[in-house]
Amino acid sequence: MLEPCIDALREQGNPFVGCLYAGLMLTPDGVRVLEFNARFGDPETQVVLPLLDESLLDVMAACAHGEVGAGIARAVPGAAVGVVAAAAGYPGDVRRGDVITGIDALDSDVLCFHAGTVRDADGTLRTSGGRVLCVTALGGDVSAARTRAYGNLARVHFDGMQARSDIGRPVPAGARA
Questions:
Q1: Which of 9, 96, 105, 156 lies in the 20 to 30 Å Cα band around 148?
Q2: Contact, 137 vs 149, CB < 8 A?
Q3: Phi and psi at residue 53, in whole multiples of 5°?
Q4: 65: helix, coil or strand?
Q5: Which pLDDT score is estimated for 177?
Q6: Per the CATH hierarchy, to which homologous superfamily does domain 79-153 belong?
Q7: C-alpha–C-alpha distance, residues 71 and 151, integer Å
Q8: Does the structure show a pLDDT above 60 at 158?
Q9: CATH code 3.90.600.10 region(s) in the chain
Q10: How far apart, in whole angstroms, are the C-alpha atoms of residue 77 and residue 74?
Q11: Containing H/E element for 112?
Q12: How far, in Å, are 78, 147, 168 from residue 143 at the CA level?
């Protein structure tokens, strides 16, 4: 999916160097490209960067200086799965101000990325946007990472909390990769 895009840019005299994200969707008719971005979105970054086995600064500096070679942007073994917890009403008009609990109960090696959260003067954590937070877990494979992500997300609570249940699930029968 990415190679034809990179090749076309090069052929047009606009060689691309840097971070290129492809938003893809599996359909019964195969993989479809939703978008290309020269940046990662939040949920994508929150599962990709924990797998990077070197400094992101070093990787981007190598790109900027034209020094990208074999072995750059190495990944740690395994997989990461991140599940977004969204506020009541998301993706439309969201409710704000709901108290968030359970963050302190997450496993110490599980990441919790805050997006739509705010902390009151008394320290109470509350919802303040649509995508409230993302719980990201690593595992030896996608199944293990998925189990850990959903297991930890189950410890988090706020009124109206909603999350997809299909993240990291095996490809449905009939879908073509």
A1: 96
A2: yes
A3: -100, 25
A4: coil
A5: 53
A6: Phosphoribosylglycinamide synthetase, C-terminal domain (3.90.600.10)
A7: 34
A8: yes
A9: 79-153
A10: 9
A11: strand 111-114
A12: 10, 6, 7
- Alpha-carbon torsion (120, 126, 132, 137), positive or negative: positive
Is 43 a residue whose pLDDT tops 90?
Answer: no
For residue 52, the tally of other CB atoms under 10 A from its CB is 14
Q: Kindly indicate the confidence band of residue 83, based on its pLDDT and cuts at 50, 70 and 90.
A: very high
Element (H, E) at 9: helix 2-11
Residues 6+ apart with CB under 8 A from 172: 26
Q: How many residues does the chain have?
A: 177
Q: How far is CA 136 from CA 89, 112, 121, in A?
A: 23, 6, 27
Going by the DSSP 8-state scheme, the letter that residue 102 receives in this structure is: -
How many C-beta atoms surround the C-beta of residue 109 within 10 A? 10
Q: What is the pLDDT of residues 115-150, one digit of tens each?
A: 999 999 999 999 999 999 999 999 999 999 999 999
> Which DSSP string corresponds to 119-177?
E-TTS-EEE-SSEEEEEEEEESSHHHHHHHHHHHHTT-B-TT-B--S-TTPPPPTT---
More confident residue, 102 or 34: 102
